[in-house]
């Protein structure tokens, strides 16, 4: 095989693999959504009540430590820190509230990239 054929094959393989991961993630999210008893909107309201004046910068429905949770990253004006609030997707109760620095956020993002 020539270098150009190998490169084309590698690119095609990556595209197919990436597409299959995206489809799998969509299926996983659909399954998680079906299990959630609390809507994202209701969980968001609960999370924002923990961080007055905050705004949600990202949200995610995930299984963590055996619990189905809505996870919200909430930013506040005048602060570089992010408050992560996790709300149980079945009961609507706050599971945890953590303040994360930009350095910790970057470290988590790198860990997520490595995991994917």
Description:
The protein is 49% helix and 30% strand. It has 116 residues and is of the alpha+beta class. The chain has a 4-stranded antiparallel sheet. Strand 3 (82-88) and strand 4 (94-100) form a beta hairpin. The radius of gyration is 18 Å and the shape is globular. The two termini are 30 Å apart. Mean pLDDT is 81; it is low at 1-24.
Question: Layout of SSEs?
Answer:
Layout: H1 3-35, H2 40-49, E1 54-64, E2 67-76, E3 82-88, E4 94-100, H3 102-115
Antiparallel strand pairs: 1-2, 2-3, 3-4
Notable characteristics:
4-stranded antiparallel sheet; alpha+beta; 49% helix; 116 residues
What is the tally of helical segments?
3
Distance between the termini: 30 Å
**Within the largest sheet, what's the order of strands?**
1-2-3-4
| Number of beta strands | 4
Give the amount of beta strand, in percent.
25-35%
Q: Could you state the order of secondary-structure elements as H and E? A: HHEEEEH
Structural class determined from secondary elements: alpha+beta
The amount of helix comes to 40-55%
How would the global form be characterised?
Answer: globular
Low-confidence stretches: 1-24
User: Mean pLDDT, as a whole number?
Assistant: 81
Describe the largest sheet: 4 strands, antiparallel
Q: What value does the Rg take, in angstroms?
A: 18 Å
